[in-house]
């Protein structure tokens, strides 16, 4: 599975310049490559992010999660989310599962990985507990 140059470029922008809140990636089966499907503006929220993941198709996503530590210090963590809903087609799940590790290696700077099959597995509370 090839990775479009834009995938790494937009990730570097998120990581270094914080020009995006999140990035949703889609595998284009016909072209056999991972592409950027949606970019979240810095002002967008977790709700915007979760709403951009389809209910019945797999996606990869990166989310720049801002939070406060117990000492009231602002921090952020870059999450990689492997979204594979139970309602997705088996072929779709297999393609995403088999390509995930290679794709993730292309994105240098991922701090935490989440795998989710339904929205409750990637709720805001999950992000908060994993970020610390």
TrEMBL record:
The keyword Protein biosynthesis does not apply. It comes from the Eukaryota. Keywords: Actin-binding. InterPro entries: ADF-H, ADF-H/Gelsolin-like_dom_sf, ADF/Cofilin. GO terms for biological process: actin filament depolymerization. GO terms for molecular function: actin binding. One of its GO terms (cellular component) is actin cytoskeleton. Pfam families: Cofilin_ADF. Residues 1-132 form the ADF-H domain. Belongs to the actin-binding proteins ADF family. This is Actin-depolymerizing factor 2.
